[in-house]
């Protein structure tokens, strides 16, 4: 390798980073624009040419193919696949799917990324045409009462397969010819149960290739896992993107002599492993670039500085990526990118829409950062192209970015420095707006804020937004966030590193000397990976160990053979064995690993590995409980073969023989005001230099801010290690409202509800909760008032508050630590009976009464009643719709009341024509999951109280509620004025009818001066004999949902939204029925009609 050039290249959306190892070991680093058609055709190829021209003695003309005699290897990551998916510029494809399922991928799941948007745009399907294949394979089940005389085959898992409908080849060929005639040459094939019976897909693939299709992606090959919809989406992504990647690879190779023959060219995959150019495919390419960064910090930080696990913090222009490494890469197998579900191994990288280009807003007393971004064009104000204020402007305003050390590439002529004057002028305007707002408010600090205080406030809000995904990645999985090292890379991360670390209690930061191009550097260090996977469907028990060992050995041999064919010796190959395991009758599978170089041993599991302990330990850590005596299933066996390269590109810098050289001194603004800040350049620093904050270290590709009380030291290879001072100390907050901390607490409260939701979704059993996402989690104050609600289901928004407040009135002082309350009755704030609400009080310290409440509501698949599913279309009384719980202690003194809750779930069987719950085990599992979600909320609330103090947390709880109230009042004032101007009155009216003619009548009276309104439903029809009656709590949810939609931007979802509204609902009407009225239809049908009427009154949008 020493006598040839080696290149690692990350082709990003804006810049392409090049890391080159030249003959003799000299390192060259280069950054150039990814798209610059006036000067070159392809950025990675141009980067290679420039390095060769500069270092080599040979001549490399820009217009000629590059010679390859001096090239050893090229490694690349690229956003080609990601950009094609985002911009919908992939290959034209058709979908081939089992007959009867043509709309399955279009329907997808019920994820609702923007539930408050009044204009929902569904992502375009990747496929243009659909071919329904006449074939049907069914998994044989003993309990199935449909008896057919049909062939029985054995699937890859050993399970019996019934061929109900054989493949209709004649129709298939006719349909495929029609697709070819339309010019479509790429196919995605997804058939029912193909993950365990791939024969039909393979046959279709062969026919399609013979007919002239250029590319065919079979779901059974792309990702042979259960769940047809994500498997189908993944096959579509592969068919859509792989031809694009192949074209790019061909164009890249065409710029070299002999098309790179003899050069080892590898591409980075989403899972953090390299693969040969010929095997690089679309479904594994989506995180190609970011994966390089994860590999980069894992190889340079873990076990180098300490043995603590590492959090990767990659802050870019529009977003921030965070990840975690503890000696093993965390992979996820079901993610959503650009509205498409992808079921393929990817590094677990969480993204938040907060970066250097995130725009800054002031809305109704709240400082807001993003998610909108200024992008590269026009960019921030300081870019001189008329852009908005951004996080970058805030850093410039505070002196943390130095125009003199920034390239002069801005303005229309792209030769001017950053425009600090324009940034300050824009902040002065925003500061005046904020001060004018404050002066008009009650209970707000009256001190006039300076420009710097406002800019610093936005930085703190941005930092808190970026901490949310880090908490989700650590606390959400049972890890202590403070027990990590923070590894920063990317262009903007080093400016925020110290502040992020202080917030999270992290005491150490590592910034590699190649942090500005760490993704490219990571690719240079990465290993080559070969993976194989197959379905299993066996119980993890001793009688199946021999089978598992045989399959592991077989798959391991395949991986080893693949890597040996690429030139790796046996001693350089390591094997990771994964079993995808879950409890029987649950849907939460965990990919559990055991690392061994001896996976070919005949008794690998019996003698080497305890996968059971690996599974139960992780389940306990992530979810807080295990399910003893429940069989554990192995869904899949996955083998990851790693060809270890053992590269080390570290080069020691000079040892310091004196103090570090100060380039200049500037003034920077911090928590305590302005401070003299020394500026250093990284190139001038030597091993052993220590720099006490505040200081700025300038590198070619990033700016490192060392905050006060922090100390930076230079490592042997010239990287920066920062020891964070005051890591666990917080400035004492007064109980007075501080607008900056109002925004911070808004993030913290919402984060609690969101993490509860993630636990509930992952630990639940039922499809309703896990895939339909029919659940909500929320935090409530000591009075039962809603503080924050993760927006999952609109109909739960206001109803859960009614449920908690009912229990406070009903139980009084009979609420104790260790109690968990179950409720679903409409009179107790319920929506309809399948929605079971689990409420847990939060106690703190010596306080005798709850200081908060946490609750979650989830739709259970069945709780008894007239019909399976507990949604009878013909019910006429509440008891016919299933088990009822007014106020039942599901957990009492810490003990789960299993016998008692089983008795109540079976109680509907005592009614004529009714049954008790038909799915008891799932009920119990989902209830336990709800308890676990609440427990997570309690832990997070207690941590917040410990951090700031109970008085402060409860004070800001009230302020957050007041802020939501203010946002709604502002909106009502605007609507009232507009209505008065148009019609001369502030009264709004609307009505509509149910299908049976029952009227829903609404009159709204707006008080412009107060920003309040009366919602009067007088005149609404009486309670009906059927089940379209709607509990009062559901009507309140409809109102709060509509108000939030009409506000038009993010506001905290809490009881403050309803504070300006007085709701009048006559008792006995369809919106406030008697306690025994049937309501199952009203929750889903009448609630929608209420929303229609409200929007009609405000003339917001047409009825749905």
From TrEMBL:
Q: Where is the Hydantoinase/oxoprolinase N-terminal domain?
A: 7-211
**What is the protein's name according to its record?**
5-oxoprolinase
Task: Name the family the entry cites.
Answer: Belongs to the oxoprolinase family.
Its GO biological process annotations read: glutathione metabolic process
Q: Which residues does the UniProt record annotate as the domain Hydantoinase B/oxoprolinase?
A: 738-1102
The segment(s) forming the Hydantoinase A/oxoprolinase domain are 231-531
Which segments constitute the Acetophenone carboxylase-like C-terminal domain? Answer: 546-708
Choose one Gene Ontology CC annotation of this protein and give it: cytosol
UniProt cross-references to InterPro entries, sorted A to Z: ACX-like_C, Hydant_A_N, Hydantoinase_A, Hydantoinase_B, Oxoprolinase-like
Specify the superkingdom.
Eukaryota
Q: Which Pfam families match?
A: Hydant_A_C (PF19278), Hydant_A_N (PF05378), Hydantoinase_A (PF01968), Hydantoinase_B (PF02538)
- The protein's organism comes out as Stegodyphus mimosarum
One GO MF term? 5-oxoprolinase (ATP-hydrolyzing) activity
């Amino acid at each position: 390798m020493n006598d040839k050039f080696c290149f690692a290249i990350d082709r990003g959306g804006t810049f392409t980073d090049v890391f080159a190892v030249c003959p003799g070991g000299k390192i060259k680093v280069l950054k150039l624009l990814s798209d610059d058609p006036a000067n070159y055709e392809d950025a990675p190829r141009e980067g290679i040419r420039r390095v060769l021209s500069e270092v080599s003695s040979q001549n490399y003309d820009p217009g000629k193919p590059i010679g390859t005699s001096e090239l050893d290897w090229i490694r690349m990551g690229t956003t080609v696949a990601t950009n094609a998916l985002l911009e919908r510029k992939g290959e034209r494809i058709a979908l081939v799917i089992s007959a009867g399922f043509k709309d399955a991928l279009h329907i997808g799941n019920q994820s609702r990324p923007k539930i408050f948007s009044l204009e929902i745009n569904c992502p375009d399907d990747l496929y243009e045409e659909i071919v329904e294949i006449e074939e049907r394979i069914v998994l044989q089940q003993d309990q199935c009462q449909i008896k057919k005389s049909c062939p029985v085959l054995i699937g890859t898992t050993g399970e019996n397969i019934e061929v109900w409908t054989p493949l209709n080849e004649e129709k298939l060929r006719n349909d495929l010819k029609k697709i070819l005639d339309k010019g479509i040459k790429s196919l995605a094939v997804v058939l029912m149960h193909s993950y365990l019976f791939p024969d039909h897909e393979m046959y279709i693939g062969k026919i399609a290739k013979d007919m002239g299709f250029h590319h065919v992606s079979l779901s059974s090959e792309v990702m042979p896992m259960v769940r047809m919809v994500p498997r189908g989406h993944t096959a579509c992504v592969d068919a859509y993107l792989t031809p694009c990647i192949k074209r790019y690879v061909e164009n890249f190779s065409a710029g070299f002599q002999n098309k790179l023959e003899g050069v080892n060219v590898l591409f980075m995959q989403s899972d953090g492993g390299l693969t040969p150019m010929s095997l690089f495919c679309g479904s594994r390419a989506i995180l190609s670039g970011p994966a390089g960064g994860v590999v980069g910090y894992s190889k340079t930080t873990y076990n180098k500085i300490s043995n603590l696990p590492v959090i990767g913090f990659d802050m870019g222009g529009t977003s921030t990526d965070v990840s975690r490494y503890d000696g093993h890469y965390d992979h996820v197998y079901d993610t959503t990118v650009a509205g498409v579900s992808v079921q393929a191994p990817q590094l677990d990288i969480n993204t938040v829409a907060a970066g250097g280009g995130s725009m800054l807003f002031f809305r109704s007393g709240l400082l807001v950062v993003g998610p909108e971004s200024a992008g590269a064009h026009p960019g921030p104000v300081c870019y001189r192209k008329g852009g908005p204020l951004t996080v970058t402007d805030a850093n410039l305003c505070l002196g943390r970015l130095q125009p003199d050390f920034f390239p002069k590439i801005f303005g229309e002529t792209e030769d001017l420095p950053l425009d600090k004057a324009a940034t300050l002028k824009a902040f002065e305007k925003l500061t005046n707006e904020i001060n004018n707002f404050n002066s008009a408010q009650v209970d707000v600090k009256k001190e006039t804020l300076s420009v710097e205080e406002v800019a610093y406030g936005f930085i703190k809000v941005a930092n808190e937004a970026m901490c949310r995904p880090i908490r989700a990645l650590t606390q959400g999985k049972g890890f202590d966030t403070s027990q990590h090292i923070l590894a920063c890379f990317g262009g903007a991360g080093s400016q925020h590193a110290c502040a992020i670390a202080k917030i999270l209690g992290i005491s150490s930061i590592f910034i590699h000397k190649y942090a500005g191009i760490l993704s490219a550097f990571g690719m240079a260090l990465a290993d080559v990976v070969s993976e194989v996977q197959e379905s299993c469907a066996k119980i993890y028990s001793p009688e199946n160990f021999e089978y598992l060992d045989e399959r592991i050995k077989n798959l391991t041999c395949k991986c080893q053979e693949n890597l040996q064919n690429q030139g790796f010796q046996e001693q350089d190959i390591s094997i990771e064995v994964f079993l995808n395991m879950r409890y029987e009758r649950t849907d939460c599978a965990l990919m559990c690993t055991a690392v061994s170089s001896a996976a070919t041993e005949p008794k690998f599991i019996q003698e080497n590995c305890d996968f059971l302990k690996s599974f139960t330990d992780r389940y306990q850590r992530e979810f807080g409980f295990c399910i003893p005596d429940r069989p554990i299933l192995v869904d899949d066996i996955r083998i990851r073969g790693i060809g270890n390269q053992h590269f080390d590109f570290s080069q020691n810098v000079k040892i310091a023989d004196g103090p570090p050289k100060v380039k200049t001194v500037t003034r920077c603004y911090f928590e305590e005001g302005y401070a003299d800040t020394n500026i250093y350049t990284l190139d001038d620093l030597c091993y052993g230099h220590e720099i006490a904050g505040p200081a700025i270290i300038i590198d070619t590709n990033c700016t490192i801010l060392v905050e006060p009380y922090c100390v930076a030291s230079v490592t042997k290879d010239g990287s920066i290690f920062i020891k964070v001072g005051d890591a666990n100390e917080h400035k004492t907050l007064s109980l007075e409202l501080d607008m900056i901390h109002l925004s911070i607490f808004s993030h913290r409260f919402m984060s609690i509800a969101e993490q509860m939701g993630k636990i509930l979704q992952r630990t639940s059993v039922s499809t309703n909760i896990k895939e339909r996402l029919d659940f909500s989690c929320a935090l409530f104050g000591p009075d039962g008032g809603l503080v924050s609600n993760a927006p999952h289901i609109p109909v739960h928004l206001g109803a859960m508050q009614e449920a908690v407040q009912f229990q406070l009135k009903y139980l009084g002082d009979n609420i104790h630590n260790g109690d968990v309350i179950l409720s679903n009755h409409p009179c107790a704030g319920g929506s309809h009976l399948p929605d079971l609400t689990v409420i847990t009080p939060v106690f703190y310290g010596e306080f005798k009464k709850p200081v908060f409440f946490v609750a979650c509501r989830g739709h259970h698949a069945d709780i008894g009643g007239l019909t399976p599913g507990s949604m009878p279309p013909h019910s006429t009384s509440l008891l016919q719709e299933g088990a009822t719980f007014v106020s039942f202690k599901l957990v009492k003194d810490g003990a789960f009341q299993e016998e008692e809750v089983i008795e109540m779930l079976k109680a509907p069987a005592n009614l004529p024509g009714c049954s008790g719950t038909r799915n008891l085990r799932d009920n119990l599992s989902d209830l336990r999951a709800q308890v676990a979600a609440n427990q997570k909320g309690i832990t997070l609330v207690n941590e917040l109280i410990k951090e700031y103090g109970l008085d402060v947390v409860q004070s800001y709880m009230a302020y957050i509620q007041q802020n939501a109230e203010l946002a709604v009042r502002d909106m009502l004032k605007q609507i009232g004025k507009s209505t008065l101007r148009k019609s001369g009155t502030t009264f709004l009216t609307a009505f509509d009818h149910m299908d049976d003619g029952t009227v829903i009548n609404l009159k709204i009276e707006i008080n412009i001066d107060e920003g309040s309104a009366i919602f009067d439903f007088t005149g609404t029809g009486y309670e009906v004999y059927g089940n379209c009656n709607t509990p009062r709590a559901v009507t309140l949810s409809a109102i709060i949902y509509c108000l939030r939609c009409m506000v038009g931007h993010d506001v905290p979802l809490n009881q403050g939204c309803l504070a300006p509204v007085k709701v009048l609902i006559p008792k006995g009407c369809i919106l406030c029925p008697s306690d025994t009225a049937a309501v199952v239809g009203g929750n889903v049908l009448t609630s929608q009609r209420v929303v229609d009427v409200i929007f009609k009154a405000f003339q917001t949008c047409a009825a749905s």
